[in-house]
Specification:
The complex is a heterodimer. By secondary structure, chain A is of the alpha+beta class. Chain A is 34% helix and 19% strand. In chain A, the strands form seven sheets. In chain A, strands 2, 3, 4, 5, 10 and 18 form a six-stranded mixed β-sheet that branches. In chain B, a hairpin with a 2-residue loop joins strand 2 and strand 3. The longest helix of chain B is centred in the C-terminal third of the chain and has 34 residues. Classes of the chains: A alpha+beta, B mainly alpha.
Chain lengths: 605, 410
């Protein structure tokens, strides 16, 4: 008997040893087994303000209707469906779907019911057993503008989850604009609740009295550099036109406005219809509302680029401010009939020096300056490389490395490019002569051009254009407060700026018509030829001439010529920003009402 | 032994507390909760103990028969007055509490057996006395089976050990084990295979006798063939009983332990959950009230029959081993005390309770750790339930009373 007892005792202990010590496959990590459910408490996403504290992005509460199929009791289905604005078939289908998932666990019955519906529902929902309302926080855009800047949030997809274990299914993540770049700042830290479950997966209370639980920490607010008034004004001016406006404060590199047209109402990207709306916008390949033209559209810069040609030639000592040429309606750079660049400066053979060349936008002058620059070097490859280096020092031809979620490199050609185009090495400066006037292989985005303008306004340096002004509890990235110097000496800027000033001030200046009384604006018109249709209308400007507060670049696609659309728009923006009011109601009205839709429709044919 | 008793009671209550606690109602003296109720049961067991100790040791011997008969009457009375819980009519309901007389009948039977066997004229070698003793066991057992509560009835098989100690031929136990062995083998292999292989074995034995022990063979061939025929019939009947007499859930339980059925959610759920829960405890366990499988009520009937899973999960290998060692020590201690009894009655009674505790211990823990088919009987002193607690208390303290008297001859 005693033997038997001891024997059984040994057998039991052996079995326990096998189960508990040797057989580790049963030993799942404590917080990762079937008895504990992990619930996340989502923090409120940070708000976004403009530079003057105007609220751009807020949160609105949204309400999901949840259902626990097991607890649903017979009820007045018709009344319920009317209340939720669904059909009976939808109701049955939704209930069945929820039941298929689980009869005991709540599933979403209807997503994102509006606030108004919630109010009426709340009073009456108690009648419908098994249904309840769950609050969620959604984005709201009170200003209805700057969609391209702010971006939007969407549910994480599987790839994101696999790449970043911090995210879980159903969670929201910034997918464009500021929402994307400053995701880490805005999202906050989610809280975790561990919930003890019983064998039916029913929740029976918090796990270990919640000692592992954490509270959610709200996201930080962000103050943007955007000026909401200017931004909205820019969007209004660009109505029915395609293109982009980028305005920068030269002394800081802060982006004051960044308009892209056509755009969309950011509130479309929120709520129940988000995916439907997104698909619609995404599939609109004609007006491409999701394309941020201020950042992503690459255009030949046209005449504004002549400023670079002039500065480079001055720096390389191939011209002086006093040296002049004669222009007879064009520049002949070769012996053939085709080797002729037309010019509209209408100087009629009188000597053209730097100042005149800028305010009359003389092609011949800059072609000459460019050619002299390239030919200064033993081979054109070297020449183009040096020239390109100078241009790139203005932030052209490459990403700006800023805090915007998208961007394009643009293009500043170098010698190798032409060696590829002409493999036998038989090319000379004249082959690339179009570069001098911002055509040819040169491509820029509006933001690059605005930044270039800011560098000119600053007489030789710029700050990387950025969108964040203040982030709560975090200093701004150092790279945004460190000036970047161009390769052009400061002394060469003065005469060029005088020329730009005369674009407005000289009676024969190309933007004379956009002159604003009382404001010292410097600028340059541009008309860029492109293969798609009418020339693009381009304008760069900064003001005031001394101690500039705003530098702006405007692109209007197929806007004929610079002073037709882009010039007035740019000066209106400057006027609005500096004085707060518009003294030229006629021009303003023409811009607000003007449409180039006809031109765009032509392209479709 | 008293010390063991209180250790067990204390550990038992702690684990019932752990198994039934939920955050919402933390209140030690809330008597509507299970741990609160158990505390009442424990409290009331003190006067019961005192009551038992108050009686003369001789009282138990004298009135063993009367106690036995009155409990038989109580068991029989269940069919009229009993309350049906979980399909068994095993309870007398008194207000919100219910009592299970089968728990106390064990003690009564123990006394009766002790009384019967301690008679100087009683000789277990004789068939008639054997039948007498077996009948004594048979009555309460059959009444309990009819409730139906076959698990509790199985405990009465434990008395075989007692009878063996008191002179029952070893041969009964041998037959018992052979029968058990054949039963298991038949279930695993199926009866045809068992029948044929045993036939082969039998012929081998027969040939051995014929060629090497011709004299013995001539003398006992009827016996040998008889044994074979009996076992063959037994094997055959196993299949019949298993498939005809047993209910489906009994069959399932055997099949799970034998590994013939793998079903994690249906019939195998209990065993699977309890084994997983124990295994999840690891070496040191998860700590008191830290077992999330316990807190999540994953194991059915955890506070009663599966209380050991709580120990396994929250106290780990260390804790459960200590409990097993405690039980082993406890049982050995009772045997030790029983052997020292001068009065035959006390000794037999001591053996009876060892046998009963042992049976509970083997079946309960064996079931929980997946070695024995699911048979719902409680773990002494640990499982939740007033009747069981009181029953075991009575069982133990009658022996303690007798033990205290051992120096007196009467």
């Amino acid at each position: 008997m005693s033997f038997l007892i001891i024997f059984i005792g040994v057998v039991f202990i052996a079995r326990l040893f096998y189960l508990q010590v040797l057989n580790n496959s049963f030993n799942t990590p404590t917080l990762n087994n079937s008895a504990v459910k992990v619930m996340y408490d989502y923090p409120e996403r940070g708000y976004i303000f403009d530079r003057n504290g105007v609220l751009l992005v807020a949160n609105q509460l949204s309400y999901d209707i949840m259902v626990i199929p097991r607890e649903v009791k017979p009820m007045d289905t018709v009344a319920f469906c009317t209340l939720l604005k669904i059909t009976k078939e939808e109701f049955i289908e939704k209930i069945e779907k929820a039941s298929r998932y689980s009869t005991r666990i709540p599933s979403t019955f209807l997503q994102q019911v509006s606030k108004d519906d919630y109010a009426s529902l709340q009073e009456i929902l108690y009648k419908f057993k098994g249904f309840y309302i769950q609050k969620r926080s959604l984005r709201e855009y009170p200003k209805n503008s700057a969609a391209n800047v702010l971006g939007y949030i969407s549910e994480v997809n599987e790839t994101m989850i696999n790449n970043n274990p911090k995210y879980h299914l159903g969670e929201l993540i910034g997918t464009a604009g500021v929402e994307k770049t400053y995701e880490e700042v805005l999202r906050g830290t989610k809280g975790v609740k561990f919930i003890q479950r019983d064998r039916f997966n029913k929740e029976i209370g918090s796990f270990k009295n919640g000692i592992y639980d954490t509270l959610p920490i709200s996201g930080n607010d962000i103050t943007l550099t955007i000026d909401a008034v200017l931004q909205q004004y820019g969007e209004a001016l660009m109505t029915n036109k395609r293109g982009g406006i980028v305005a920068i404060e030269p002394s800081t590199g802060e982006i004051l406005a960044m308009v892209s047209m056509p755009t969309y109402d950011p509130n479309l990207m929120v709520g129940r219809d988000r995916s439907k709306n997104f698909t619609k916008l995404y599939l609109d390949t004609i007006s491409k509302p999701l394309l941020d033209r201020g950042l992503q559209a690459q255009y030949p810069p046209g005449s504004p680029f002549k400023v670079i040609s002039a500065l480079v030639a001055l720096q390389e000592n191939v011209i002086t401010t006093g040296s002049s040429i004669q222009c007879f309606g064009g520049y002949k750079y070769g012996s053939g009939n085709g080797s002729f660049m037309r010019c509209h400066c209408e100087t009629g053979g009188s000597p053209v020096a730097l100042n005149v060349a800028i305010y009359r936008s003389c092609n011949s002058y800059f072609a000459n300056a460019y050619r002299k620059t390239i030919d200064k070097f033993p081979t054109p490859t070297e020449g183009v490389n040096v020239w390109g280096k100078h241009a790139e020092s203005f932030g052209l031809g490459n990403y700006l490395d800023n805090d915007l979620s998208v961007g394009q490199k643009g293009n500043i050609p170098n010698g190798n490019l032409y060696n590829k185009i002409y493999p036998n090495g038989r090319w000379r400066s004249t082959a690339t002569i179009s570069n001098s006037i911002g055509q040819g292989e040169v491509l820029t985005t509006p933001i690059q051009l605005a930044n270039m303008t800011a560098a000119i306004a600053n007489e030789g340096f710029y700050y990387i254009p950025h969108i964040a002004k203040k982030i709560k509890g975090k200093p701004l990235d150092k790279k945004f407060t460190t000036p970047i110097y161009t390769t052009i000496d400061k002394k060469h800027f003065k005469p060029v700026i005088e020329g730009l000033f005369d674009v407005f001030e000289n009676p024969r200046g190309t933007a004379r018509g956009s002159r604003v009384e009382g404001l010292e604006i410097s600028g340059k018109t541009g008309t860029s030829e492109n293969p798609h249709g009418q020339d693009h209308s381009i304008f760069i400007a900064f003001a005031p001439k001394d101690n500039p507060k705003i530098a702006i670049a405007v692109f209007v696609e197929n806007g004929y010529w610079g002073s037709r659309w882009a010039g007035p728009i740019a000066t209106l923006m400057i006027e609005k920003y500096l004085t707060g009011e518009i003294g030229r109601p006629l021009i303003e009205e023409r811009m607000l009402k003007g449409s180039i839709q006809e031109e765009y429709d032509k392209q479709l044919k | 032994m008293v010390l063991f008793y209180f250790i067990f009671i204390f550990l038992g209550w702690i684990n019932i507390y752990a198994a039934t606690i939920s955050e919402n109602d933390f209140d030690l003296l809330n008597f509507s909760t299970e741990y609160g109720k158990q505390l009442i049961w424990i409290g009331f067991s003190i006067p019961i103990i005192l009551l038992i100790l108050m009686f003369e040791a001789k009282f138990y011997e004298k009135y063993a028969a009367i106690i036995y008969v009155s409990f038989l009457a109580l068991l029989a009375g269940l069919f009229v007055l009993g309350k049906n819980i979980n399909g068994s009519t095993s309870w007398y309901a008194i207000g919100s509490f219910s009592l299970q007389p089968s728990e106390f009948a064990k003690a009564a039977t123990g006394l009766a057996i002790a009384k019967l066997v301690s008679d100087k004229l009683f000789n277990l070698k004789k068939l008639s006395t054997q039948v007498q003793a077996l009948l004594l066991l048979f009555f309460p057992a059959i009444l309990i089976i009819l409730q139906p509560d076959p698990g509790s009835a199985l405990v009465y098989a434990a008395f075989i050990f007692v009878l063996y100690r008191e002179g029952l031929p070893f041969y009964y136990i041998t037959v018992g084990f052979i029968a058990l062995f054949l039963f298991v083998i038949t279930l695993i292999l199926g009866y045809e295979v068992t029948l044929i292989s045993s036939l082969v074995l039998f012929i081998c034995i027969l040939l051995y006798f014929i060629f090497y022990r011709p004299r013995a063979f001539r003398k006992g061939w009827i016996k040998i063939i008889g044994i074979y025929l009996m076992s063959a019939m037994f094997i055959f009947s196993v299949d019949l009983v298993f498939n005809q007499v047993f209910k489906q859930h009994h069959r399932d339980r055997f099949n799970i332990i034998l590994g013939k059925t793998v079903d994690m959610k249906g019939v195998g759920y209990n065993t699977n959950q309890s084994v997983t829960t124990i295994a999840s405890g690891g070496f040191f366990g998860k700590g008191f009230l830290e077992g999330e499988r316990t807190q999540g009520n994953f194991v059915p009937e955890q506070k009663t029959d599966y209380i050991f899973t709580t120990i396994g999960e929250e106290w780990g290998f260390v804790g459960s081993t200590i409990v097993i060692l405690l039980f082993v020590a406890f049982l050995l201690r009772i045997i030790n005390r029983a052997e020292q009894q001068k009065a035959k009655f006390s000794r037999i009674y001591g053996y009876s309770i060892v046998a009963i505790f042992f049976m509970h211990f083997v079946i309960n823990i064996g079931m929980v750790i997946g070695l024995v088919p699911t048979i719902g009987i409680p773990l002494p002193f640990f499982s939740y339930g007033g009747s069981a607690l009181w029953g075991f208390t009575v069982l133990l303290f009658i022996f303690i009373r007798l033990d205290a008297n051992k120096t007196y001859e009467w």
